[in-house]
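Technical note accompanying the year-one report. For the benefit of new consortium partners, we illustrate the data format agreed upon in the data management plan: each record pairs a sequence with a structure-token string. No post-processing was applied to the example shown here.
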Amino acid sequence: MATDVQVPALGESITEGTLAQWLKKPGEAVKADEPIASLETDKVSVEVPSPVAGVLTEQLVEEGDNVAVGAVIARVDQAATAAAAATAAEAASASTNPAGAGENPQLRGSEHAPEPASAEAETSAGDEDHITTLSPAVRRAVLEYHVDPTKIKGTGKDGRLTKDDVIAAAEAQKSGTPAQAGAQAEAKLPSPPEQQPSAPGPRPSPGDRREERVKMSRLRQTIAKRLKDAQNTAAMLTTFNDVDMSAVIDARSRYKDLFEKKHGIRLGFMGFFVKACALAAKDVPSVNASLEGDEIVYHDYLDVSIAVSAPKGLVVPVVRNADRMSFAEIEKTIAAYGKKAKEGTLTVEEMQGGTFTISNGGVFGSLLSTPIINPPQSAVLGMHRIEERPVVKDGQIVARPMMYLALSYDHRIIDGREAVTFLVRVKEAIEDPTRLLIDL
């Protein structure tokens, strides 16, 4: 008896998604609630679980197709068993790879062919077949960095490769000499059969000119639309300041070990900036407001959207009631969101309802930027890298760890004086963290 697999509810106001990747192939055994496909929505990736245990018999849509909530995308046969599926896979492997025979063309030609039963068979299929099972971003990185995906251990969900895995492998490959890299690669690969070539084909030379067209993911399309809408709608302006990070760096170095021992989390810079923004928002409430029609909505709470770079694009999970949280609670929440973003498991609810955004481009080395506000919010704070610069203190030129801060704001509801005042309050709290304790 076959059971339909339907697209689950994807969140409020989301009616469809894009089938990003099949996680199971026809003929494979699946357990109840085991993910068989990954869907991409406007905001997050969602896994589609099997409603029953059995064998996946049909895939009714292709990767890249748009599917509506409730649509049937696959069927699972409950009557079949895992043992039957394994037997079928072994039989398929034996028929497609007989001793002394070349590659079976049906393995490449049929998109519904069973997956090989052993890891060796999967490895011997060649780089080209392996690349087609990767996400577009990872596939593009593999081609760009000229690395073999079969030799890279994935750190993503279920062992899947991420773009970071590919970049790390490329850096490791560059660190050794070409001869050493080749020797290591040969040592890891099994000896190929006599009739099978040692490599899938000649690799492009560095001078070759190549192009690849990859359809924008649904998430990337949404990011592009929202950012452009913000530019077209808001009267955006950016004000800048710089901040001496000496006091915060000193506080971290003195208390980081005790903090981690007590709370089980490292003390980072973000906790200080979230608390400083919460303090400044009390003096300048318009920075924590939003514009709805011809009304300004002021919030007596601070829900901070923290911009996080994920493998599929920028996401902004929300730290709710940040103004009432301790340093440890803020750091734990941000760390949990960062892990979820890397794994692609953030939910729609975790990214809705922010009232103010903080974006830390400094982790990537950015010196200065003009961040774009996240509608319907009215402001965003941009943090940047810390570097020693000469500054004048008490008539003396000294070196200090300085950071540029940028506040982009909607000039329709925030005046320049208010924006500058907010940024100065943040600067004062960071340069003298005691203000955070005495609410000054």
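Partners are asked to follow this layout when depositing records. The longest helix spans residues 246-263.
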